[in-house]
């Protein structure tokens, strides 16, 4: 294990011990460009010295915004090398969100990917009194911009190349591992996002705990595509990569992600539940399009795979017929599908950040994908517990990692203590104090149970767990995950606490339902038109009836409504990590909830729509409420 305990210190160590080994790749104009660890270290050093010439120093904050790019990772490390902190922000954030986070974090320098992000920053500059410089990486479209805040990345690098490299390395050596390295802002499900201060030691300890459990090799290839503002990316693309020497690979862009994934074939990958749900929907839709012998082969070996994984979960031994079916299925179905997904080389893949439905989890395990669950949060550097090989199951999130203590409080809340636990919330002492118990344990806000096996099971957010009127326990995420197993449902929110039954609002998957409609020559113009077609409403009704058969009777969805628009982070309905903002939704859709339980068959709804520049509009809808039971 490396001795250096700061992220820039690990960069220097890697440049000496594995100088020529690939450290990072970036796909640009269809070609993968490779940077060695020596190149990596040179870029970080030159940029740090260039930032120093700009007046950036200890305690200062640097924000990065854009898609995953080597230059944006190097900018974070350069800021840390000078004793400052990196503040990655979501690249799809609207202006108001950016203004709040950048101002709250006291950011003095922003490194922006391209013209789009520069325009966002310039539109809010009057709300950012601390801002001294905007550094742009891609100069396309910026040739005519004349603004005192703007400077090109290349110009900063050029100034830094002439700096004192030895003094820079001495400064890195003197860094305090317990100083703030990254400030990741919370998703803000219940209010304004808070700046979570994570030290070098926090991130390094979380990465060390991960590689003590999982086999991570120096030769591994990671796909770095998760938002840099999400803590999982900091622990994965920075901490784990720097500790092991594994290479990070940045896709050309969101629109080429699936193609680049298949082309690269990463050996390890972390993905949010939404990605696995999208993968599954795509497979299910393609399976519907085949017929004849291909359909027979797929259905037979799909059923065999699901039956086998269920037997394994129950601790049963697979019989000779099971093994023959799996062998043939591997040749004819499972391996080709893994190859299409880009997971042909993957030894391990993880899902985290939110619950993944058990049916979705079981599907990928059945097809030979070594999918496992990890539990964490921003405040614990993204890692608290993890499933080991041989212990993966859809109902738990594994055992605590080495060096991380976990307990269940008297109120059922999961609480954690360890070197990975954050330093506190930036400029928010009251929230920092409230986040810890009197004896120093971090209060996660999640309700959970530690099983006899030592594995942690997460029930739901503690504040969301309730009861129906008849006393039946009601965990909304359990119902919602069941609903999202349908390839035609992209999002769902359920209601039932202190009410007689469970009702749900459904957002269709526009692409999947659109393909379904096209195969039936069903015309439509937009999302609203498609979602309210009588044929689509019948399709969703049938899906919910099938899902209800897998739910306990008290938790079956009795009434539902198909929304005329998807939930959108720009409209504050979900966070940038696609977590439901339940309180906000309950307020905005109060008329729908009232109609559910009053027996109404229709409801008039005015939904607010927010554009990227902050302008707001609204959409009026008359929506049909349907009975499902």
Structure description:
It is built from 21 helices and 28 strands. With 629 residues, the chain is α/β, with parallel strands linked by helices. It folds into three domains: 7-199, ANL, N-terminal domain (Rossmann fold, 3-Layer(aba) Sandwich); 273-344 and 346-463, Rossmann fold (3-Layer(aba) Sandwich), CATH 3.40.50.12780; 465-627, 2-Layer Sandwich (GMP Synthetase, Chain A, domain 3). It is globular, with a radius of gyration of 25 Å. The longest helix is centred in the middle third of the chain and has 22 residues, at 292-313. It starts with 6 loop residues before the first helix and ends with a strand. The strands form seven sheets. A five-stranded parallel beta sheet has the order 4-3-5-6-7, with helices on both faces.
Keywords:
five-stranded parallel beta sheet; 3 domains; alpha/beta; 39% helix; Rossmann fold; GMP Synthetase, Chain A, domain 3; five-stranded mixed beta sheet; 629 residues; 21 helices; single chain
Q: Under the CATH scheme, which class of the largest domain?
A: Alpha Beta
Structural Rg: 25 Å
Query: How many individual β-strands?
Result: 28
Catalogue the unreliable spans.
none
Strand ordering within the main sheet: 4-3-5-6-7
Structural class: alpha/beta
Work out the count of structural domains.
3
Number of helices: 21
Query: What would the average pLDDT be, to the nearest integer?
Result: 91
Assess the beta-strand content as a share of residues: 15-25%
Q: How would you sum up the major sheet?
A: 5 strands, parallel
Under the CATH scheme, which architecture of the largest domain would be assigned? 3-Layer(aba) Sandwich
CATH superfamily of the largest domain: ANL, N-terminal domain
Shape: globular
Distance between the termini: 57 Å
Q: Helix proportion of residues, in percent?
A: 25-40%
CATH topological fold name of the largest domain: Rossmann fold
